[in-house]
């Protein structure tokens, strides 16, 4: 499990760019608070190898899941806490719930600094949930 900004990062499959090559279906982790994306640590080396090959080949597009196979893709996400299967509302709500739980702990401990930090995170999370809902509505 990876953390960023204190929120747990979400496992997802995304498309990345390596110079001029688009690499499709790459297992990634992303932070719902700051939007930071990183290649999933379990396949970081494979990703680099494929990216280098594709770049040397001048391939405009390669598919990472073809390269490592479906089974490995599945395995990678078995030890992820939250996997993005398209239900972003729920993911944000889970993160918000966790932050709310921690907030009541912080209040009990009278830890002001932590409390402020958590309030900040909650604000960002609910903004992102709102933005995502608005974006989805405009796509319908
Ligand atoms: Zn972050």
Question: Percent range for helical residues?
Answer: 55-70%
Write the CATH fold name of the largest domain: Ubiquitin-like (UB roll)
Backbone CA Rg: 18 Å
The domain count comes to 2
Q: Which structural class should the secondary elements be placed in?
A: alpha+beta
* Major sheet: 4 strands, mixed
CATH architecture call of the largest domain: Roll
H/E topology pattern: EEEEEHEHHHH
Secondary structure: number of strands: 6
Poorly predicted regions: none
CATH top level class name of the largest domain: Alpha Beta
Bound molecules: zinc ion
Count helical runs: 5
How much of the sequence is in beta strands?
A: 15-25%
How far do the termini sit from each other?
34 Å
Describe this protein's structure.
With 140 residues, this protein is α+β, with helices and mostly antiparallel strands. The chain folds into two domains: 3-78, Ubiquitin-like (UB roll), CATH 3.10.20; 88-139. The chain is 56% helix and 21% strand. It has helices spanning 44-57, 64-68, 70-78, 88-109, 112-139, and strands spanning 3-4, 7-8, 10-18, 21-30, 37-39, 61-63. The strands form two sheets. Strands 3, 4, 5 and 6 form a four-stranded mixed β-sheet that branches. Strands 1-2 form a two-stranded antiparallel ribbon. A hairpin with a 2-residue loop joins strand 3 and strand 4 (21-30). Helix 4 (88-109) packs antiparallel against helix 5 (112-139). The protein is elongated. The chain starts with a strand and ends with a helix. The model has no long low-confidence stretch (mean pLDDT 81). The protein binds zinc ion (ZN). Zinc ion binds next to loops.
């Amino acid at each position: 499990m990876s953390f960023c900004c204190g929120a747990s990062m979400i496992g997802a499959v995304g498309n990345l760019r390596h110079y001029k090559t688009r690499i499709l279906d790459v297992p990634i982790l992303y932070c719902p608070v700051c939007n930071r994306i990183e290649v999933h640590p379990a396949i970081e080396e494979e990703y680099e190898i494929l990216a280098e090959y594709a770049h040397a080949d001048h391939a405009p597009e390669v598919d990472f899941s073809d390269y490592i196979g479906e089974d490995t893709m599945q395995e990678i996400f078995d030890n992820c806490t939250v996997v993005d299967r398209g239900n972003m509302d729920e993911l944000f709500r889970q993160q918000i719930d966790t932050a709310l739980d921690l907030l009541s702990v912080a209040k009990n401990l009278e830890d002001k600094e932590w409390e402020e930090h958590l309030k900040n995170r909650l604000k960002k999370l609910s903004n992102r949930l709102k933005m995502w809902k608005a974006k989805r509505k405009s796509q319908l």
